[in-house]
Amino acid sequence: MSTIDYQQLSQDYERIEQAIRFIQSHHHEQPTLNEMAQSVNLSEYHFQRLFSRWVGISPKRFMQYLTKEQAKQLLTQSKDLLNVSHATGLSGSSRLHDLFVTCEAVTPGEYKQRGEGVEIRYGIHPSPFGECLVALTDRGVCNLLFVQNHERDAAVTYLRENWPAAEFTEDYEETRVVIDEMMELFQRQSSSPLRLYLSGTNFQIKVWEALLQIPS
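and the corresponding structure tokens:
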């Protein structure tokens, strides 16, 4: 029977907490993996493994998530794309475009225009965490959230309020494919279903974001 090294767990937790604070404070500078690892006195290899194990996504993907969230906030303040790119530490508007397409399945311009010209297909399905609303564009998953207390109408209203200029179509067949992929993801991690070793696809990041919204 294996014993738990609580001292090591405590040390690992403190390192991850320190790393998260470092990335949150410096993500606009786009630090390298080596710089992140040095902030907690670890090698790149050990830091990558430790961070992914505790947080559920890689350090790079976590930094991209923070950068994307900051960019979304700036875009809602009517900042132009080039200024948003520079404010978030990206080298240019093409990097901002790639970030949004990867993480949000829309372009920065489409996000700024609140979905104008975008068709969003959505459906609500059973999932390992209760009912789940999945919303897709032609580029991938743009929204994924778990429906609390069977409040389906509230979930759809939330989706429409996020994309007021988009066109919406119920599509249970296409969105069901996403739920099937989610089930496969959890089954591969059946011994520890919440410990998602995510490779960084748009879909997997959306699962991670949705899990963060579940009340403890």
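(Above: one complete record from the training split.) The longest strand covers residues 119-125.
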